[in-house]
Design goal:
The structure is a homotetramer. By secondary structure, chain A is α/β, with parallel strands linked by helices. The first copy, chain A, is globular and about 50 Å long. An 8-stranded parallel sheet of chain A has the order 1-8-7-6-5-4-3-2. Chain A is built from 14 helices and 8 strands. Chain A is about 45% helix and about 10% strand. Chain A has a domain of about 230 residues: TIM Barrel. In chain A, helix 5 links the parallel strand 4 and strand 5. Chains in contact: A-B, A-C, A-D, B-C, B-D, C-D. Chains A and D meet through helix 4, helix 5 and helix 13 of A and helix 4, helix 5 and helix 13 of D.
Amino acid sequence: MPPATSPSAARLPTPLRGVVPPLCTPLTPTGDVDTRSLRALVEHQLVAGVHGLFAVGSTGETAHLSDARRRTTIRTVAEAVAGRVPVLAGVVDTSTARVLDQARAAADAGADALVATAPFYAATHPLETADHFRRVRDGVDLPLFAYDIPASVHTKLAARTVLTLAADGTLAGLKDSSGDLGALRRLLVELRAQGSLDTFSVLTGSELTVDGALLAGAHGVVPGLGNVDPAGYLRVYEAATAGRWDDAAEEQDRLAALFGVIEAGTAAGTGAGAAPGMSTGASALGAFKAALHLLGLIDCPATAAPQTPLNEEAVRSVHTALQRAGLL
Amino acid sequence: MPPATSPSAARLPTPLRGVVPPLCTPLTPTGDVDTRSLRALVEHQLVAGVHGLFAVGSTGETAHLSDARRRTTIRTVAEAVAGRVPVLAGVVDTSTARVLDQARAAADAGADALVATAPFYAATHPLETADHFRRVRDGVDLPLFAYDIPASVHTKLAARTVLTLAADGTLAGLKDSSGDLGALRRLLVELRAQGSLDTFSVLTGSELTVDGALLAGAHGVVPGLGNVDPAGYLRVYEAATAGRWDDAAEEQDRLAALFGVIEAGTAAGTGAGAAPGMSTGASALGAFKAALHLLGLIDCPATAAPQTPLNEEAVRSVHTALQRAGLL
Amino acid sequence: MPPATSPSAARLPTPLRGVVPPLCTPLTPTGDVDTRSLRALVEHQLVAGVHGLFAVGSTGETAHLSDARRRTTIRTVAEAVAGRVPVLAGVVDTSTARVLDQARAAADAGADALVATAPFYAATHPLETADHFRRVRDGVDLPLFAYDIPASVHTKLAARTVLTLAADGTLAGLKDSSGDLGALRRLLVELRAQGSLDTFSVLTGSELTVDGALLAGAHGVVPGLGNVDPAGYLRVYEAATAGRWDDAAEEQDRLAALFGVIEAGTAAGTGAGAAPGMSTGASALGAFKAALHLLGLIDCPATAAPQTPLNEEAVRSVHTALQRAGLL
Amino acid sequence: MPPATSPSAARLPTPLRGVVPPLCTPLTPTGDVDTRSLRALVEHQLVAGVHGLFAVGSTGETAHLSDARRRTTIRTVAEAVAGRVPVLAGVVDTSTARVLDQARAAADAGADALVATAPFYAATHPLETADHFRRVRDGVDLPLFAYDIPASVHTKLAARTVLTLAADGTLAGLKDSSGDLGALRRLLVELRAQGSLDTFSVLTGSELTVDGALLAGAHGVVPGLGNVDPAGYLRVYEAATAGRWDDAAEEQDRLAALFGVIEAGTAAGTGAGAAPGMSTGASALGAFKAALHLLGLIDCPATAAPQTPLNEEAVRSVHTALQRAGLL
């Protein structure tokens, strides 16, 4: 285990609380990282008051970014943040050796903490998954979050694995993007029972149930939609921590309506009436980026290849949604 | 559509609010419905103050009950309740013609409302699913709830289907056992936007997130664990409706800990140390019934064949959990 | 175990070899069983030389048929066949008690053997699944086939379960509709090693790989497409049993091309250009029935509610496919 | 499209026929690539007469290898082969930009052809998948095979995608590890109908149904078990191409029995009787490597972290299986 006084651990509150948006990665029309827009997006988030930032996560199109672009992104974010809030960095790759390479690069680029999934492509047994996290933690001296995202990894982290790795200090926290708030509730109850909740950070990645997750005891949220409306999520968080749960729910409802933009691409017809060929991910990320572009925060709304771009009708529907949400 | 003054509709509040436990079906050692124990369980629930009862749902082992036993169960519950609260009855079968036969039998046995899933075994398109619900509603003059339980049906109800059938009056409500509170949040926001929430009842079947579901605007809960501890769920519901959300969450936490009994069977070793061959369903339902037996409410803890019964170690762990929860 | 001289066992060859089509269930426009068309379809099959018939299986829309219609179908088939070949009957229901009721009804209606899946809706552990088959076999004195169809049941039968129940005589055979010929190959090798293949019948339900399955040692095939072209499957079978494997493959290729009709419904546009709302099952079964109607064998091509019917464009594409296959 | 006279295309037969084992990647006890053992394994394969070799595929533990180790592996194989047969290299990564980086490295290391999956982690629409393959093909001047492996990628390649990319020359072939021989049969029939089968290579990755796949028209096989027994697969292939299908099936049966070694790890008890915590992948790859070690071909049977190693009982069961198969 690393010494408690390591510089990076010092920069990461224990536990990490609040709103930690998973940054979109602005791209140029040719697919390079648009560092100017990225810095503007970071500043927009910091001005809104976020408690941390998560670079090159799923919302940051990590799966579509080359190693070089991942590195550029993390370095740009870390430099723009300049220590004002902790910067978490995704180290998403198929298994231990590859994640370790990602982790070293992320540490070198200035990340304050790392976020890793269980191995994917070649699925692992829970005991192998635990070994994976231990090896990653031992290999790079930065706090490590487990990233539970079954929609991408195709296995769900076992509660027993998380409880064990929270207790022995391997993991500093969990980013739960499973969408399974029931399982998260049980886990929170068990983490509390074993005395882990004061040091182990539990962040939900489900932007539609932040009020419920905070009520259940989660410390914070990593909302993809927070790219577009960080102030909204901060209002949910502040109302919740003040015990004004009805206010939190009302704001969450507004955000849930806005979240409908993720279907902008898949729902939009073309001129000829047929739906465009587009994954749900391309639609959601395309909508977030279209919104950031319409809000004047980034220069180009492009998502990384091979994702199909939003068509004009889809962009118009994003525009309408921003107006309805009072953002335009 | 049926006339608004039909007797059954009169017995069902609009919307249905509160705690509506899905009753376990007590069985004799030979597998028949133990009507004496069933009446005792019903009385236990009514004394606790539940707002409705749901007979022959998944928790009631509907998949394992013959038509004759389903009918006996519904009739026994309806007679024991005697109009004090509404009785919902599951009409779970593979497709329209078979569900209609179940629905006629349930109506004849005294149900006040019906709960049907989308077709399963042979999966349907959302438009076919909508047609299914319309045909069931047209065939039997009782309010109809859609039962969204992807773990059993292997498709999730499309939000568009629910919104359409809520708007046109086909469905009286939704029992959401999807475990996907994010999707339910979006649905609630859209139901409210189209003006359906005053008449269309939204009940969550997720017993671990009742506080969050109520905060999101759900009207009530259908908690399997409510068989064992209805008073606990009533406390969650009452705290929530009074705006005492922290109290609701604290009680929900206690129930989440108790919910661990569902693993009694699958986690228990035998004398030789190996885990018994047992489905997660048999473990959960066996634990609920073992608890009801230990609490003196039912005569026999048996689940229906071919489910493996809990072994002694598992029953002891249920006993311990009841003690910890303050129920024994 | 039943005495070896029971009349039903006598009617079922050991093992059952050859082509055993899973009969479509012709319906009237109002959804009743069209017994006249059903008898005509049976006669068409017997004239072609099939070795058995399988009534109310998945191709027979069993999930959409009421108990009464299932019974009518089995009785009509059994009477029309009049002992000329064995009649297998599906007893598809969610679990043991319900399957036993189906099994008694099927036996009473004249079935020579029963075909049951593992429990579904409430999934079972392999040991519970084995117990299920034992209870069904013990309850009704007819040979029992296990029906492995993960697309509908959502679990795959464990090889160990099949091997055990083949060895102890619980099962008379397997209808493998898993589409996993690799797993079937391993099972065949293990069945042979334990001496079961002389008495335990292995039938594939995969109509696209009959040549490969027979080469691997399967005894026969239950091809849905055999409703439309039984003679084609008989040619595959006869070529294979004569060792003329290239001929078998060539005929199988012709049938694989014809099998494309299953997409008639889902691929067809409407007048306005959009695809109709239709499940893959409705498309496939609608296409088989449209073909039988175009061939003059059944009076009405309707599938059971709530399946969307084929539109005119789809029916025309079936017509074209029949012409190309030399059937019209 | 690249000129037909490019050196690499010249080295790849059109179509590629025969046995192309996906090489295991021998490792040292510390996890580095054991290049000495790798060269010995390559020589063993070439002596047996294989028609090509596939480096850093799933059997080669590609998901567990760092970029550096992947490169070392491909270079070592290419140098050891020295042009005697074509060397295919896996370029497995989450999406286009990353696969392109892998592809450039593989080309530089001496690969003759590339094998890429559809994007994973972030799933794509079929049109996006097609765009992905086009971009990879355009970016690196080597023949490109599509790798259909839904167990790892969690989507299946659409037949329409393969047909289109075969027709327009983007893809040189398909490695089908879907296990769905029915879908492959339909695809082969459609590829033949559009005139692609003379130039587009179809290789099955299903080592249990090679006879059936060849009978269906596949050109060859990429058998993981071929690491252990290449001569066996060559006998299957030679018997099949000579029309001696019963001989092919008999040899395939022997190999199917040997294939049982993949369960060596998951089935083996420890001293205390419980099964070790181990993924199915770790068991299968551990068994292949244990066999290669027992056969004296590689120095160390270790699989890459975090895969649990086989215990002694498991290794003994591999030894027994090799003896039964006549290899020891």
